[in-house]
Automatic annotation (TrEMBL):
Localization (cell): Cell membrane
Presence of keyword Oxidoreductase: no
Domain ABC transporter per the UniProt entry, residue ranges: 8-238
Membrane topology, from the record: Peripheral membrane protein
InterPro entries per record: AAA+_ATPase, ABC_transporter-like_ATP-bd, ABC_transporter-like_CS, ABC_transporter_ATP-binding, P-loop_NTPase
The protein, known as: ABC transporter ATP-binding protein
Keywords for this protein: Antibiotic resistance, ATP-binding, Nucleotide-binding, Transport
Principal subcellular localisation of the protein: membrane
Keyword Flavoprotein part of the UniProt annotation: no
PANTHER family hit by this protein: ABC TRANSPORTER ATP-BINDING PROTEIN (PTHR42711:SF17)
GO molecular function per UniProt: ATP binding
PROSITE patterns the record matches: ABC_TRANSPORTER_1, ABC_TRANSPORTER_2
Species for this entry: Streptomyces lonegramiae
Length: 321
């Protein structure tokens, strides 16, 4: 393996569906990013943003209409034979013959995979050993996702593509999958994850990119993306006080505030300072603040802010036309 290059390099990637450029639809519109070896990179986006269309190009399932993709230093479409044995792909909809049992399915796949893990090991990784003799048609949606993951892991891939890996899983199975994905990353596997669950990206991703209408609108480390958003401090004042009795926003180190009756929500770039000022004020006055909640910004909030901002821009453009 050439460790000098990134595991994945994507430059100005484009994908158009339909043959005619006049009638076709461009789902990927000049996307660039790279993923280092051993890194876990998440691709997030609004519905129809172009995540799956992008990932399919990385998996070599289609040729791009523009730009360049390299996976492990090779073109995944033209040099499929060199890339395919070293990647693991978990698609959104794994189509299994429904009459086969779980272990027969893994056996079948193992027959087509060079250096495959033993069936028992693959099933153990995803917690499906006890379901090995169950026919695929009898599995729940979440169990099918886990079987899909077992198949993607069979060839001990250097690069693992996970397209919405925990959709349909209950909270406990989702946590188990996260633990497994983290362990694989810690062993050096590069992971490219697409997900609708922001919490999942927040838990797992070293870096992420957010797509909207075929383009990357923001990318970076989770902490950096989140740091651009303010934190919140909220509490309820005891009667008969109101927000007007609070110190000024400048004294509290807050940027602005919302009130709902006696409940106050302060936005701040310095949560520790704002919380300290508010608590010292309350102590000085001998007051008890109800429902006190100090919260750093989350990825969900950053994502909604970006998505809502884009919506407003598009509405404004539409109105201007
Ligand atoms: N085969 C196709 N022919 C024409 N348009 C397509 C085709 N596949 C996808 N599209 C369109 O391309 C756009 C991007 O779809 P894609 O599935 O890549 O988005 P996504 O970000 O994965 O969405 P989701 O999160 O909803 O799964 C959508 O508008 C979709 O309707």
């Amino acid at each position: 393996m050439d460790l000098g290059d990134n595991a994945i390099d994507v430059t100005e990637l484009r994908r158009r569906y339909g043959t005619s450029s006049a009638q076709g639809f461009e789902a990927v519109r000049g996307v660039s990013f790279s993923v280092e070896h051993g890194e876990l990179f998440a691709l997030l986006g609004t519905n129809g943003a172009g995540k799956t269309s992008t990932v399919e190009l990385l998996e070599g399932l289609a040729a791009p209409t523009g730009g360049r993709v390299r996976v492990l230093g090779h073109d995944p479409y033209r040099e499929r034979g060199r890339v395919r044995p070293r990647i693991g792909v978990m698609l959104q909809e794994g189509g299994f013959p429904s009459e086969l049992t779980v272990s027969e399915t893994v056996q079948l796949w193992a027959g087509c995979t060079s250096g495959a893990r033993p069936v028992g090991e693959a099933l153990d990784l995803v917690g499906m050993v006890r379901r090995r003799d169950v026919r695929v048609k009898m599995l729940s949606g979440g169990e099918r996702r886990r079987l899909d993951l077992a198949l993607a892991l069979l060839g001990r891939p250097d690069v693992l593509f996970l397209d919405e890996p925990t959709t349909g899983l209950d909270a406990e199975s989702r946590r188990d999958t996260w633990e497994l994905v983290r362990a694989l990353r810690d062993e050096g596997t590069t992971v490219l994850l697409t997900t609708h669950y922001l919490e999942e990206a927040e838990e797992l991703a070293d870096r992420l990119a957010i797509m909207h209408q075929g383009r990357i609108v923001t990318s970076g480390r989770v902490a950096d993306i989140v740091a651009e958003r303010p934190s919140h401090l909220s509490f309820t004042l005891p009667a008969p006080l109101s927000a007007a009795d609070l110190p000024s926003l400048a004294q509290l180190g807050a940027t602005d505030r919302e009130t709902d009756g006696r409940t106050v929500r302060l936005r701040t770039r310095d949560l520790q300072r704002t919380a300290t000022e508010a608590l010292m004020w309350a102590r000085h006055k001998g007051l008890e603040l109800g429902g006190l909640d100090a919260r750093s910004a989350s990825l969900e909030e950053a994502f909604l802010h970006i998505a809502q901002g884009l919506e407003k821009t598009e509405t404004a453009k539409g109105n201007a036309r």
